[in-house]
Specification:
Length: 442
Amino acid sequence: MIFDNQEPPIILSIGGSLLATPDGINTAFLKRLNTFVRKYIKRGKRFFLVAGGGVTARAYRDAGKYVVGGMTSDDLDWIGIHATRLNAHLLRTIFEDIAHPRIIENYDKKLRDWKEPLVIGAGWKPGWSTDYDAVILARDYGANLIINMSNIDWVYNEDPRTHKDAYPISKLTWGEFEKIVGTEWSPGINAPFDPIAAQLARKLRLTVIVANGENIENLEKIIEGDAFDGTVVQPYRIDASFYDREYYVGDKGRYRFGRRTSLLGMLFSNLAIYYRAMLINIFLKPKNCLDIGCGTGKLVAMLRKLGIDAYGVEISDHALELADKQVRPFLKKGDVINLPYSENEFDLVLTFDVLEHLERGKIKKAINESIRVSRKFIMHKIYTKENIWIRWFHSKDFSHLSIFGGRFWRRKFLEHPDAALQRNSIFHLPLFMESIFLLKKK
């Protein structure tokens, strides 16, 4: 199983059409895939590669039908399964020096204490596509991302081969996806993601990205948290509308011991705000600062009481409406990936529990924006998987789209050319409670 000090594995469901074409094995793609996987394994990533059957499966299926005139669904499935296993063995040969020695062909037989950074999977049994196998792997090994590598760039509202007016969709919920692909599985189905696998992914609240596997540069953008081409299918539509009035008054995302509007909830919330404000005032001493994702502006109000010229930016109209009248003049509507401020405008730019709410493709741009508008310090308090107290005291927050280990975020900050990650330069609570990253503008 995965270890607590490692990032969750990333699952690549590789369509068989990428591995083999009517002209033969796609060696050009395999070379690029080899370079891509090894590059990120060197950076500490771990992968499951699940091989599809593709043209190989269809060729054997069509041959059988031609000879006997018809085949059972089980026979068709078994042909597809054995084609995936052939493709999986090819991948296993390419990655022999870094891959687990066993190709997963029986998903009931779990890997125990596996050390290798790469595991290969193939088809298992009739009725299960390799998309479904990928979802099983996500469930069993703690992965929070499946990249479905196919020969299409997007999911379309209709089949673009038969509908000239079909248009690509960048974001879908599983319910919306189901309306497009249906709920039935058949051997060799031509769908961007198997409908049965989609139903399980919806139940497990997984995120799947459908993207063109041939475009390795685009896959790198997905891994890096940069903007990418592809369709994100997720449990809920997470945007500004998700953070409705009930979220801010405590009906959603509340602490297990009560609503934020309860006496105990308000006491805990106010203590947290006071602690954050004192942390900033004592250790960083900014003349002015910007709180990105300020919510109802309570931290901004506290900082202003301490003599700091504090401002806030918030994407939710509901939060701004609920803000106290005295702090409203210092709050502005805006998006973390497009801040309405000039370069080098604030001594300190900060976020508290914001970045983990972003989709993967917005992370890099959000970090860039926070650094752009700062002239001195940038501080990000982020919920990481090491902060286990959240799971003890807080109910499930489905807007947490990017829960990673601290190593993921440190690497993001260390790689930025315009800021330096500061170490041990600010007080913070133990890691099981909070993760704080302080950067200094270069």
